[in-house]
Amino acid sequence: MNKLKITLALAFCVSTTVAHAQAPDKGNAAAGRQKAVAICSGCHGMPGTKTAFPEVYSVPKIGNQNEAYIVAALRAYRSGERYNSTMKALASSLTEKEVLDIAAYYAKTDAQSGASGK
Ligand code: HEC
Prior knowledge:
Blueprint: H1 2-22, H2 29-44, E1 50-51, E2 57-58, H3 67-79, H4 85-93, H5 96-107, H6 111-114
Antiparallel strand pairs: 1-2
Helix pairs in contact: 2-5, 3-4, 3-5
The protein binds heme C.
């Protein structure tokens, strides 16, 4: 009986740990800002920006976007679930922490002012 209780307790611990690991962690917006300004703002910093490669393509606005949405989008680009050559390369270059940090930053920022850091 005791053995069963211990097993159940352990199983519970393991499952809550796993659940916690999968819960969207909160990123650090200040750390994300530096990366975002350096890497992302050239395309996502101004309204109506278009990329010229591999084709002329409108860049979506991500400022004030839902944090979980940005994290999900970046993970999807990285895994190939969502495909865009530019974003695949960029998302693949980010660590998981950078993804969370950048998402936290953009969720709090209007990207139109994000480029200038205001
Ligand atoms: C060279 C230009 C360019 C740069 C630099 C760039 N992006 Fe993108 N991004 C795009 C384009 C183009 C799309 C639209 C792709 C598509 O249709 O899926 C996009 C899409 C996205 C999306 C999905 C938006 C949506 O509405 O679904 C997110 C999130 C995103 N980018 C985040 C970032 C982050 C974070 C960075 C910096 C690490 C970054 N991007 C850097 C061009 C760029």
